[in-house]
Amino acid sequence: MSFGLWVEPESVNENSDLYRAHPDWAVKLPGRKPSYGRNQLLLDLVNPAVRDYIVENVSRILDSCPIAYVKWDMNRHMSDMYSPFCENGAFFHEYIKGLYDVLGRIFYPRPHILFESCSSGGNRFDLGMLCYSQQIWASDDTDAIERVKIQGGLSYLYPISTMGAHISEAPHQQTLRETPLSTRFHTSAFGALGWEMDLGTLTPAEKKEAKKDMAFYKAHRKTFQFGRFQRLGRQNGMETWVALGEKEAMAARFLMDNEAAAPADVLRVPGLDPDRTYAVERQTKGVRVGPLASLLKHVAPVSLKKGGFVIRTIDKFFMLPDGEATFTATGRALNEGVPLNTRFIGTGYNKDIRMLSDFGSELYYIKGVEA
Q1: DSSP string for residues in 94-140
Q2: Residue 49 DSSP SS3
Q3: Hey, what long-range contacts does 255-261 have (CB within 8 A, 24 or more apart)?
């Protein structure tokens, strides 16, 4: 792992050496008591002396050790919009110009540092900040199903490679949604993927799956992040994303609305060479045994108690194969849609059935076959 730093240099606490030395550097309205946010005041980035101070001190820290990543956060909303260094009414504009000056002076000379911008989530997701930061934190909402909507919406305006997208805990801390690890990975893979959870909470089987996922993502990061991204809308309750690379493509399908005995699904990947043959491989994901205990007891030779010792032990180290599928198809067929194996409908299990529970997902790897 590399060393990263999470900073918020635009705010100041009154109980600090900086404020005691320069109380006039804080943003305040003349003749009024200052208003606080998060027990803080903002530093006046319109003031050249303030900008010089931030540049000098942040640069000193960044040069003091091998820092590879910086997350620059801004969580304190503006309230007292005034600076003696600009005309009334120009504060917002001049403040952001001052911020650009600070960021350019700090990060342009240090291209080896990965710089991510953030402001209470994605409040600074704009083209101006992308002139200085390679990526921007899309949202503090990391729920994978919510992220299908968030990242899908952002993709109308910004490249996938600019979106900070993390795999987080389930149940999610904001929605309490229990989302499979595979869905959390598939959503984050279409972005600047990271992990934001205690990896010690994963079972040995999930850790094995996570290692496999990361190896796949690193091998195909260029396609995920820089391929031509397409949103294909919803069919049979499943939202589809496609990324087209130079020699390969990725197609992810997210189950937003599950139903019993769903209609037959097709895999559609528009944009491929219609006259070329492609190999298609469904990236099989393990299905946890624990949640299926009540179904397994009907076919097991012994009585299995849901949440019991046997089920808990199996769930730690073993996962059921999920819908293995490898086939070839022409680009013309994939452009129109190729039928897929059936989903689980309660009539039995085999390794070819697509085991898609609530908020499940699937990922297809498509690669051109050499003539």
Answers
A1: HHHHHHHHHHHHHHTT-TTSEEEE-BTTBTT-SHHHHTT-SEEE--S
A2: helix
A3: 255/356, 255/357, 255/358, 255/359, 255/360, 255/361, 256/145, 256/148, 256/359, 258/356, 258/357, 258/358, 258/359, 258/360, 260/345, 260/346, 261/345
Question: Model confidence over 173-189: pLDDT tens digits?
Answer: 999 999 999 999 999 99
Angle at 171 between CA 138 and CA 234, to 5 degrees: 60
What pLDDT score does 349 carry?
76
Average pLDDT over residues 32-46: 94
Distance CA 360, CA 182 (A): 7
Q: Which amino acid is at 356?
A: L
- Residues of the chain above pLDDT 70, percent: 96
Per-residue pLDDT at 296: 61
Distances (CA, A) of 140 to 166, 171, 172, 276, 291: 10, 15, 12, 42, 28
Q: Which DSSP state fits 343?
A: B
- Annotated catalytic residue within 52, 140, 257, 273: 140
Tokens coding 32: 């009024």
Half-sphere exposure at residue 255, Cβ-oriented, CA atoms within 13 angstroms: 19
pLDDT tier at 284, thresholds 50, 70, 90:
confident
Nearest of 249, 74, 217, 225 to residue 164 by alpha carbon: 225
Beta-carbon contacts of residue 298 (< 8 Å; ≥ 6 apart): none
pLDDT of residue 294: 65
Q: Is 73 a catalytic residue?
A: yes
How far is it, in rounded angstroms, from Cα 60 to Cα 103? Answer: 14
C-alpha to C-alpha distance for 210 and 190, rounded to whole angstroms? 16
Six token digits for residue 10: 């635009």
- The question of whether 140 is a catalytic residue gets the answer yes
Of the listed 44, 73, 80, 315, which one is catalytic? 73
Give pLDDT tens digits for 10-38.
999 999 999 999 999 999 999 999 999 99
Instruction: Identify the pLDDT of residue 319.
Output: 80
Nearest-angstrom CA–CA distance, 117 and 28 = 25
Report how far residue 226's alpha carbon sits from residue 307's, in angstroms, rounded to the nearest whole number: 43
